Amino acid sequence: MIKATHEAVMVDEVLENLVFKQNGKYVDCTFGAGGHSHEILKKIDRKGFLTSIEKDERATKNLPIEFRDDSRFKLINDSFSNLRMFFEVEEIDGILIDLGISSTQLDDPLRGFSFQSNGPLDMRIDTTKGKTAAEWINSASNQEIADVLWSLGQERASRRIALKICEFREKKSIESTKELADLIVSCVYKKTKKHPATNSFRAIRMFINNEIEELQKVLEAASYVLCCGGRLAVISFHSMEDRIVKRFFQGKDRIESKVKFEYMKDKFFKPTAKEISINPRSRSAILRVAEKVC
Ligand SMILES: C[S@@+](CC[C@H](N)C(=O)[O-])C[C@H]1O[C@@H](n2cnc3c(N)ncnc32)[C@H](O)[C@@H]1O
Q1: What pLDDT was estimated at residue 4?
Q2: Which pLDDT does position 188 carry in this prediction?
Q3: Residue 280 sits in which domain range?
Q4: For the segment 20-57, what is each residue's pLDDT rounded down to a tens digit?
Q5: Which member of 100, 133, 232, 233 lies 3.0 to 4.6 Å from 123 by CB, making a disulfide possible if both were Cys?
């Protein structure tokens, strides 16, 4: 497993609302550094079971002994959108999806997710397949780049950045996070507290990992594998993702599922001021938990 520097978000709220049966079967779709999985295992009893899923092979290697030795735990290295391949219909009591990437991944320059440190422009969660961000950015059309930056990053300078990228790569291909971040900085004139490359880097990461489609698929799959009264908890860090979750719970924008969900008592939870002061990266998190109604 990657060095465990990720701080799990809204742990109390997740446990309180998701883990309602101590002998239940749970799925943590985003194992990451294992923070939520660790807490779920602490709360369930001897008859309970937790399956965790993680797309990043590196996060599943060298699993700490506490997980390896626990007969109530199983880890699957796959994408959460394949949820239905692993479970029967109405088999699971609670499912957690903690979207995005972990601090461990973000802080590792070799993964290429961050504009804060220089490294190869990769950005793939699963490094064994698919195009790297560098491969995409050096081959996509001006229009395609602008569209991704606008639709997934709401980046106002999307066209200017896309043009700059295309002009730059005529001389030299873009290979590092610093090269890309510098190009973006030179196009964004309005100075705000947020780093000018924040939106573009997030948009490219979401595109490279197909994150919106993955989310739509896992919500749909979760609606089938949850038992009646089973609960689905989703933590998102971006308004676009949260909107998808909210609309899914409302029965809108579904692929084919007709399953009904009802919120617990609160429609959503936000981290407390105390949590934000301890873990500033939690500040944009929003948790929604809903129960399958049959
Ligand atoms: C925010 S982190 C989860 C952190 C975790 N809850 C913890 O407490 O350590 C999100 C994790 O989900 C993984 N991930 C992202 N997309 C995925 C997908 N489609 N399928 C499975 N895992 C995914 C990422 O690799 C990352 O490790």
Answers
A1: 46
A2: 84
A3: 11-104+211-293
A4: 999 999 999 999 999 999 999 999 999 999 999 999 99
A5: 133
Relative to the CA of 38, which ligand 1 atom is closest? 8
pLDDT tens-place string over residues 147-159? 999 999 999 999 9
Residue identifier of the C-alpha nearest atom 7 of ligand 1: 35
Q: Which of 208, 228, 249 is the last residue of a domain?
A: 208
For residue 35 and ligand 1, the question of a CB distance below 6 A is answered with: yes
For residues 185 and 63, state if they share a domain.
no
167 burial (CB, 10 Å; 0-12 / 13-18 / 19+) is: exposed
Q: What's the gap in Å between 170 CA and the centre of ligand 1?
A: 36
83 with 31, same domain: the answer is: yes
User: Is the domain of 16 the same as that of 74?
Assistant: yes
pLDDT tens digit sequence for 180-230: 999 999 998 777 888 999 999 999 999 999 999 999 999 999 999 999 999
The token duo for 121 is 């422009």
Q: Is the CB of 221 under 6 A from ligand 1?
A: no
Pocket test for ligand 1, best of 40, 125, 216 (most atoms within 8 A of CB): 125
41 domain residue, yes or no: yes
My answer on whether 204 and 216 are in the same domain is no
- Tell me if residue 132 falls in helix, strand or coil: coil
Number of domains making up the chain: 2
If one residue of 15, 30, 102 were mutated to test the ligand 1 pocket, choosing by the most ligand atoms within 8 A of its CB, it would be 30
CA–centroid distance, residue 196 to ligand 1 (Å): 25
Residues 44 and 50 sit within 8 Å (Cβ to Cβ) = yes
Closest CA to 134 of 178, 193, 89, 95: 178
CA distance 216 to 75: 22
